């Protein structure tokens, strides 16, 4: 059956081919920047701070994403080193991108005199927005899809438009649109983060932890549907635990095929479990030990100047923000 599929190349400029994949990733980065800039203004952080962070963070994320993917596909890339840099053909890992971006953000925020937790909280919605949009790059490239399904499931059960259904036809077989599942999960995550960050009980760092928990839960269950998961050969007991945790999904879905010769544990599923446990524990431990003293809504203090972000020593704005910081500090002690 002939179907109309999307050309992964958006346009050409002479010999240069511009791929939709790159355009979509760029859109995700831009939306993330706008969200961070808008929220940063509430705390007196200039837009230049986030623009510079983006200029440093995007390359770091791309390098991390590609390195993560290549590392777990090294048996292939060691024989095809020329393909290592060909990210326009797909093959990047979101967890790797997150690692690269977070490491960059840590050193950049510290160099500017801001606590990492305060900055990464502001950027949490930006991160998940970038992931939401970026997944559509996988859609265009016909990658990161799930196991086979009937066309009727896509058309009549999910009620997807024909242009999505057609793109899910890979070499004559229709597949789960896992890119769409994850995009919708991330959309719900953004809404939740927007609500949480206005709550006075949220402490510094906890919005970022909440983002990781939400994303990882969705990724764990969606990853089990995919047929291209990075995996490794682990103990049978570990594989059984992962399969047991995923088993509620079998009421509706069948797991995506995972070649036992390649591995029996999906790396993204295992990492998702670790992140959920680690983030939940971090929230509990930091509160128990009194390490989470700042709230998300508190003014952000530059520890190099001792002033709130955007304040100038002795200036009217600085005086007003310093007073606000003092009021917030007293409120926090009363709530603790």
Automatic annotation (TrEMBL):
Pathway field: Protein modification; lipoprotein biosynthesis (diacylglyceryl transfer)
The topology of this chain with respect to the membrane is:
Multi-pass membrane protein
Q: Where in the cell is it found?
A: Cell membrane
State a single Gene Ontology molecular function.
Answer: phosphatidylglycerol-prolipoprotein diacylglyceryl transferase activity
Q: Under the cellular component aspect of Gene Ontology, which terms does the record hold? A: plasma membrane
Region span, Disordered: 309-336
Q: What class of enzyme is it?
A: transferase
Tell me which family the UniProt entry assigns to this protein.
Answer: Belongs to the Lgt family.
EC number in record:
2.5.1.145
GO annotation, biological process: lipoprotein biosynthetic process
Q: Which Pfam families match?
A: LGT
Protein's UniProt name: Phosphatidylglycerol--prolipoprotein diacylglyceryl transferase
Please give the start and end residues of each transmembrane region.
20-37, 49-72, 92-109, 208-225, 267-285
Q: Identify the PANTHER family for this entry.
A: PHOSPHATIDYLGLYCEROL--PROLIPOPROTEIN DIACYLGLYCERYL TRANSFERASE, PROLIPOPROTEIN DIACYLGLYCERYL TRANSFERASE
Lineage, top-rank taxon, reads Bacteria
Its gene is lgt
Q: Where does a 1,2-diacyl-sn-glycero-3-phospho-(1'-sn-glycerol) bind?
A: 135
Query: What function is annotated for this protein?
Result: Catalyzes the transfer of the diacylglyceryl group from phosphatidylglycerol to the sulfhydryl group of the N-terminal cysteine of a prolipoprotein, the first step in the formation of mature lipoproteins.
UniProt keywords, alphabetically? Cell membrane, Membrane, Transferase, Transmembrane, Transmembrane helix
Q: Which organism is it from?
A: Paenibacillus beijingensis
Against InterPro entries, the record matches this protein to: Lgt
């Amino acid at each position: 059956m002939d179907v109309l599929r999307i050309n992964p190349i958006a346009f050409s400029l002479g010999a240069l081919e511009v791929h939709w994949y790159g355009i979509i990733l760029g859109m995700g980065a831009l939306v993330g920047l706008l969200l961070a800039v808008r929220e940063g203004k509430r705390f007196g952080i200039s837009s230049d701070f986030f623009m510079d962070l983006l200029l440093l963070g995007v390359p770091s994320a791309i390098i991390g994403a590609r390195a993560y993917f290549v590392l777990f596909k090294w048996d292939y890339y060691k024989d095809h080193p020329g393909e290592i840099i060909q990210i326009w053909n797909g093959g990047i890992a979101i967890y790797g991108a997150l690692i690269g971006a977070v490491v960059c953000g840590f050193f950049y925020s510290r160099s500017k005199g801001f606590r990492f937790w305060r900055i990464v909280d502001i950027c949490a919605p930006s991160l998940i927005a970038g992931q939401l949009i970026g997944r559509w790059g996988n859609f265009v490239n016909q990658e990161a899809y799930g196991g086979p399904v009937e066309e009727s499931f896509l058309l009549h059960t999910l009620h997807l438009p024909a242009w999505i259904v057609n793109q899910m036809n890979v070499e004559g077989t229709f597949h789960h649109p896992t890119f769409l599942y994850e995009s919708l999960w991330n959309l719900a995550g953004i809404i939740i983060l927007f609500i949480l960050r206005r709550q006075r009980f949220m402490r510094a760092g906890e919005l970022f932890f909440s983002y990781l928990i939400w994303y990882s839960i969705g990724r764990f269950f969606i990853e089990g549907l995919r047929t291209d998961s990075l995996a490794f050969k682990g103990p049978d007991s570990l594989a059984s635990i992962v399969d047991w945790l995923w088993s509620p999904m079998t009421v509706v879905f069948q797991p995506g095929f995972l070649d036992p010769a390649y591995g029996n544990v999906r790396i993204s599923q295992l990492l998702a479990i670790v992140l959920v446990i680690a983030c939940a524990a971090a929230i509990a431990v930091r509160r128990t030990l009194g390490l989470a003293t700042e709230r998300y809504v508190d003014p952000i203090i530059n520890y190099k100047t001792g002033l709130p972000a955007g304040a100038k020593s002795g200036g009217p704005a600085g005086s007003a923000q310093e007073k606000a910081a003092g009021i917030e500090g007293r409120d926090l002690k009363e709530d603790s």
